[in-house]
Design a protein that fits this description.
The complex is a heterotrimer. By secondary structure, chain B is α+β, with helices and mostly antiparallel strands. Chain B has helices at 14-21, 35-40, 77-83, 87-94, 99-104, 107-113, 120-126, 222-228, 235-242, 259-277; strands at 7-10, 26-29, 48-51, 61-63, 69-72, 130-135, 138-143, 148-150, 153-154, 161-167, 175-182, 189-200, 203-212, 219-220. Chain B has a five-stranded antiparallel β-sheet with strand order 4-5-10-6-7. In chain B, strands 11-12-13-14 form a four-stranded antiparallel β-sheet. In chain B, helix 3 packs antiparallel against helix 4 (87-94) and helix 8 (222-228) packs antiparallel against helix 9 (235-242). By secondary structure, chain C is of the alpha+beta class. Chain C is built from five helices and five strands, in the order ββαβββαααα. In chain C, strand 1 (3-9) and strand 2 (12-18) form a beta hairpin. The model of chain C has no long low-confidence stretch (mean pLDDT 95). Classes of the chains: A alpha+beta, B alpha+beta, C alpha+beta.
Chain lengths: 807, 280, 164
């Protein structure tokens, strides 16, 4: 990594500048949700179902209501709000039915997973609220449960919802069914495999929480929430859940302690604290999720069972891929649950390969588990896992080197923009959504060089001498970022029926200081630094003169929030457009001040000069001062430099790269060590390479976590067996190596910065790299596939079976 | 996250603690590393906590007159780590919890709590420790072999407090090792094995094998010990002895490691621990 | 039911009345308004609540406030000396050892415990010393780099903590 800089040498853009938000975090002065303490604040606790599937016969809250400090106890019937919204049904082609069932604020008649909320207590202190929960008596009628998606759709399985026969949420498909069938039937080689992409618990270090405050004086609500999407939450809470007019709700997301997708969504606790605050007369009501609650009631990720068939020729050409996936969506649907295993998964299944025939069917399934929605990568890690495992299986079948099979099938660099056959499709108005750019071989070659891939056999022999099985795994991934434009993701039913643009407002105050307000919402990505880098570079002002404000629906322009690696490509382009408007007005005013034509004003950083007369100039700050005072404004020009821009990108962006993991397995115990991790990523231009590296590190660690350790496990009757950090294995420092990063740079042609996005890339690539490494190590025993996570017992058992069952 | 309410009494002496303990549904708390997590999840709801954490007489570890060693019940893992001269005791302690837990958790707390997957019982069993228990009836010394009666159950009577752990001198030329396969989330042992062995004249003259995580309680693998004693300590002899690691045990089974696997790992880790102790 | 306790927190004596069940982390956050110490789990696993109790790193979610009566407590708010950051704070900033910042105070407190015992830890020693602290953002890569950098700076004489 380059040395970090306190201040940029020339332009701050592209420099590894220390983060401006860090001083508060390293001194303990960050303000997360639970750090907020309001006058007369009360505390709410939620009683959650101990059963995965049960009817509620009755709830007796009388004892709880008389407990010390208790202000109110609510059950589902007390709350007149609608069920939570389903914003992204599976769509995109005609005739797709979504059998929708979403949670209520508190369950009324039945519960569908262990942890669904059924009652709530508001008390003076958190202790009193928890104490009172224990005094609530629910008369349960337990019902049979099902937790596995394949089991749930079988005849005779417990039925969760009347409107969803056989527990099917939707049956969706994409691609050329007949063409793919023909390609597979006529192929020289077909490899098939069942792949389980296990359920994960996302685990941001800060759990969720909300504070609701109803102001009786103004009839307005303020909701503090640990959220990635305060504007969307205000919209959804108003228009779909509470019926309270949108302008009467203000949502504020304070510092957010990690999110990874979990904080995109509308959760029942949000309207609950609003309702509760009004019900108790306008005292603020705080709810903070415990970690065990987080495991039971905040979304999980992944949970696919997939059957893949990959077909091709013995010379290495892949000619077809067919996939059938069962996506477990939980007991009721989360906000965009169905969108993840459809649009964000199956439409990018062919990865970075030019595969002429691709067809995928996806069945969304209800089970008695907590809902599944977007977790870092959201659909794209699942797709990458399928295609990258499939490429290895295919290579093994035809006896060709894995890197060479990949090279043989890469989309050639002269074929961009490339329209992939699993079909990102066509936006309304006919615009194609395509893979914008790419050059895949240099990244792979660089990574292969870093691990000395040519010497792999010698590395394996050396490990074998030490009693270890060494394996190396490749993942040559691509990722769709930005999740745009609106006319595609919204308008043609591919997305959440809304837009996906972003916004930025720039105000230049009289003193020359610049305030940027944005609709995106950071959760650790350093947006206060990177937006400032972009705007400072655009306006030619020092970075320290720029402040970035976000996360409060009061005072920021509407924005769709931060997820899908979209803030740099969409949000920061909006900031550039706002800066362009500022510069345009400054130019016109400079022309007025300098008695020149605007066309004759040239801009060099903060200097606005008359062409050919370099002494006739005004600084940006002088222009701002004069225009803000407006004592001498030309006819028709409004005072002040204050411009807002909305930006809807014409297309998604497509980072790519090659990650290579090296693992060693202790043959006698099955214990696997990740001994080396190399990543060559192409995320286009970088606004702050230090932050880019950090995003990659974190993503890689999460993806490695899935391959080696993580997995949410439910018992057959729906109890979460990995219900705490004592059982759910999160990567810790001593379990990981340092990561070796390198890059290629292929700027995206889609946006002026040439950026692509990096928030999810590490997580998308790394799971498959480690999985392929483990299987490569086990190939010494003829093993061709094993499902994650690679616990010691699983590896040991596989080795024993391969040896002929001799334990 | 927050325990149910309870009364709190800070003991001013062991006698004071013993008197309070006679009062009924009370629990003794020292570092709290075992008890407080249960109370926070409200899986334990004692009506009274007796805090013995300030009783200086229960702190510290020291050599005894007979050449053995004693460890006060309130000695923290970190203090025990700093005091010990045995490398395998260091290995064992460094694998327990994390720095924060070791700074706070006590030796006596671990032994009293008797988690079937905690490491200290296996270590102390292999070192032939005994527990010194005190009540108003007086002191008694109980060997740890047999002390662990079931998961979270010990031979400590309801009116007794563990005051220290004691052992005699090590066998001549004894060496040891501690090896564990930790659950990667909790850090507790799937299998933890302490081997203390000595050789004399080409034959194994002393063998103590403590195993945790495998059975209902931490135990001495006596079948391994007897197979090893008198053998030449060769790799094949060690392997043959280690095959008895789970003899007689009802082996634990969970989603991370089932019975068969855990039994096999008990054997592998026992073999490796003995080999390591023998200097291989 | 209230117990009266006194603590020396970041060098200042503080008197509190607490319920016996009040956790030290609650006392620090809610009674003393030092919200830099965070709560990330309920099973003593994540380490976000790590503070120094009488100079040693402990998880303040697993200590009763009454147990700490009379003790000296150092939190993240006590690490800097006025405007001068602790070398660990500086290093976390310069090495990008934090993203969302939620684990950071606990991570810094755990690392400070290590550096008090070992002025020149290896990468492996650092990784083991922070195994009681979970970070979900950084993959630990830059945290390890930050601790190494802080150790080097402190060996070269950068200011160590002065409060408490």
């Amino acid at each position: 990594m380059t040395d970090v800089l306190d201040a940029p040498a020339t332009t701050p853009l592209g420099q590894p500048i220390k983060r401006t938000e860090d001083p508060r975090f390293i001194t303990g002065e960050g303000r997360y949700l639970d750090d907020i303490k309001l006058q007369s604040m009360t505390h709410l606790a939620i009683l959650r179902s101990p059963y995965a599937h049960a009817n509620i016969r009755s709830i007796d809250t009388s004892a709880a209501k008389s407990m010390p400090g208790v202000h109110a106890v609510f059950v589902g019937a007390d709350i007149p709000y609608n069920p939570l919204p389903m914003a992204w049904p599976a769509g995109g082609s005609a005739g797709i039915t979504n059998n929708i069932n979403t949670p209520r604020v508190l369950a009324t008649d039945s519960v569908k997973w262990t942890g669904e909320g059924v009652a709530a207590v508001v008390a003076e202190t958190p202790e009193q609220a928890l104490d009172a929960l224990e005094a609530i008596d629910v008369d349960w009628e337990p019902l049979p449960a099902v937790v596995d998606s394949e089991a749930a759709i079988k005849d005779g399985a417990p039925q969760l919802h009347e409107n969803a026969p056989n527990n099917i949420v939707f049956e969706w498909s994409v691609g050329d069914k007949d063409g793919t069938a023909a390609a597979i039937e006529g192929a020289e080689v077909v490899v098939t495999q069942r792949l389980v992409n296990q359920r994960l618990i996302p685990n941001p270090m800060e759990t969720r929480g909300d504070i609701g405050w109803y102001n009786p004086g103004t009839d307005e609500y303020t909701v503090w929430m640990s959220s990635q999407t305060p504007h969307i939450q205000r919209l959804l809470l108003a228009a779909f859940v509470t019926g309270i007019p949108e302008h009467k709700i203000r949502c504020i997301s304070p510092d957010v302690g990690g999110a990874f997708g979990t904080k995109i969504f509308t959760y029942a606790d949000m309207p609950l604290v609003m309702f509760a605050s009004k019900a108790i007369g306008g005292r603020p009501v705080k709810w903070v999720e415990g970690r065990r609650e987080n495991y039971q009631s905040t979304i999980h990720g992944r949970d696919h069972i997939t059957y893949v068939e990959i077909a091709g020729k013995r010379d290495g050409e892949v000619t077809g891929v067919r996939v059938k996936t069962y996506a477990n969506l939980g007991g009721r649907l989360s906000t965009i649950g169905p969108g993840i295993p459809t649009t964000l998964y199956a439409r990018v299944l062919s990865g970075c390969y030019k595969i002429p025939n691709v067809y995928a069917e996806v069945t969304g399934v209800y089970t008695n588990t907590v809902f599944v929605d977007a977790y870092r990568g959201a659909g794209r890690p699942e797709a990458t896992y399928v295609i990258e495992r499939a490429m290895d299986l295919f290579a093994a079948e035809i006896g060709m080197d894995r890197a060479e099979v990949r090279r043989r099938n890469f989309i050639p660099k002269d074929q961009f923009p490339y329209e992939n056959p699993s079909g990102l499709g066509t936006a309304s108005g006919g615009a194609k959504i395509y893979i914008d750019s790419g050059d895949y071989e240099p990244a792979m070659d660089k990574a292969l060089g870093m691990v000395d891939y040519a010497a792999l056999a010698a590395q394996k022999a050396d490990a074998r001498d030490r009693g270890k099985l060494l394996g190396v795994g490749l993942s040559t991934y691509i990722e769709v970022c930005g999740v745009a434009p609106s006319k595609w993701i919204g308008a043609v039913g591919e997305g959440w029926g809304a837009a996906m643009w972003e916004s930025a407002n720039i105000r230049v105050h009289l003193t020359g200081k610049v305030v940027v307000t944005v609709g995106t919402q950071p959760q650790g990505q350093g947006h206060e630094t990177t937006y400032a880098q972009v705007v400072a570079a655009e306006l030619g002002v020092p970075m320290e003169d720029v402040i970035v404000q976000h996360s409060d629906t009061l005072g920021t322009p509407f924005g769709y929030g931060s997820y899908g690696s979209r803030t740099s490509s969409v949000g920061m382009t909006a900031a550039i457009k706002a800066a362009d408007k500022i510069k345009d007005k400054a130019r016109r005013y400079a022309a007025h001040m300098l008695e020149a034509s605007p066309d004759d004003i040239e801009i060099d950083g903060a200097e606005y000069r008359v062409k050919g007369s370099p002494d006739r100039k005004k600084t940006f700050q002088e222009i701002a001062f004069a225009l803000d005072l407006a004592f001498d404004a030309p006819e028709g020009m409004e005072p002040y430099l204050d411009e807002t821009a909305y930006y809807d990108t014409p297309n998604c962006t497509w980072p790519f790269g090659t990650h290579i993991a090296t693992v060693e397995i202790d043959e006698e115990t099955g214990v696997v060590d990740l001994v080396r991790y190399v990543a060559v990523d192409d995320v286009g231009n970088k606004i702050n390479p230090m932050i880019v590296d950090g995003q990659l590190h974190g993503g890689i660690a999460q993806g490695v976590g899935q391959a080696l350790w993580e997995g949410a496990v439910y018992s057959d009757d729906g109890q979460l067996l990995t219900g705490s950090m004592m059982d759910y294995v999160l990567p810790r420092a001593a379990m990981l190596p340092n990561f070796e990063l390198d890059q290629t740079v292929t700027p995206s042609p889609v946006n002026p910065l040439g950026v692509k996005g990096v928030g999810e890339a590490g997580a998308i690539a790394s799971t498959a790299a480690v999985a392929n490494a483990v299987v490569d190590a086990l190939s010494a025993y003829g093993i061709r596939h094993l499902d994650m996570p690679y616990t010691p017992q699983k590896l040991w058992s596989a080795i024993q079976s391969a040896k002929g069952g001799q334990a | 996250m927050i325990p149910a309410a309870f009364d709190y009494r800070r003991a001013t002496s062991i006698d004071d603690a013993l008197a309070a303990l006679a009062g009924g549904d009370a629990k003794v708390i020292a570092g709290g590393m075992s008890l407080l997590p249960l109370m926070k999840l409200r899986l334990a709801q004692p009506s009274m906590l007796i805090d013995i954490g300030r009783l200086e007489e229960l702190k510290g570890s020291r050599a005894t007159a007979d050449g053995g060693w004693e460890v006060g019940a309130l000695t923290t893992y970190t203090e025990a780590l700093e005091a010990t001269e045995l490398d395998f005791t260091r290995e064992c302690i460094l694998g327990i919890g994390d720095v924060q837990v070791r700074n706070r958790g006590t030796v006596g707390g671990s032994i009293s709590h008797a988690d079937p997957a905690s490491d200290l019982p296996a270590l102390l069993l292999a070192l032939d420790y005994s527990a010194v228990l005190r009540s108003t009836r007086g002191d008694r010394t109980v060997p740890l072999d047999g002390f662990f009666e079931g998961a979270f159950q010990t031979g400590i009577a309801p009116d007794e407090i563990l005051v220290k752990l004691v052992r005699g001198p090590l066998a001549a030329s004894a060496k040891g090792s501690y090896l564990k396969m930790a659950h990667p989330a909790s850090g507790y042992s799937i299998v933890g094995v302490c081997a203390v062995v000595a050789s004399s004249g080409g034959a194994v003259s002393h063998a103590r094998i403590g195993i945790t995580g495998v059975g209902e309680v931490a135990y001495r693998a006596k079948a391994v010990e007897s197979a090893l004693l008198g053998s030449d300590g060769s790799p094949s002899a060690v392997a043959a002895a280690a095959a008895h690691a789970a003899d007689g045990q009802t082996v634990n089974s969970d989603i991370y490691a089932d019975r068969d696997y855990r039994s096999k790992m008990a054997e592998v880790y026992t073999r490796r621990a003995i080999d390591a102790a023998l200097g291989r | 039911m209230g117990e009266h306790i006194s603590l020396t927190v970041n060098g200042a004596r503080r008197e509190l009345d607490v319920e016996p069940r009040r956790l030290l982390v609650q006392a620090i956050r809610e009674d003393l308004d030092l919200t830099g110490t965070h709560v990330g789990c309920d099973t003593s696993q994540c380490g976000a609540c790590t503070i120094h109790l009488d100079g040693k790193a402990v998880k303040s979610c697993t200590v009763l406030a009454v147990q700490a009566d009379g003790a000296s407590v150092t939190t993240i708010e006590g690490m800097a000396n006025g405007e001068t950051l602790h070398p660990l704070q500086t290093a976390f900033w310069e090495k990008h050892g934090l993203q969302c910042g939620f684990c950071t105070p606990g991570m810094i407190m755990a690392a400070a415990d290590l550096l008090a015992r070992n002025s020149d830890p290896s990468e492996d020693e650092i990784r083991h010393a922070i195994e009681g602290n979970i970070c979900r953002c950084t993959g630990y890569h830059n945290i390890v780099a930050a601790v190494r950098a802080a150790a080097a700076a402190m060996r070269e004489g950068a200011a160590a903590p002065v409060t408490a």
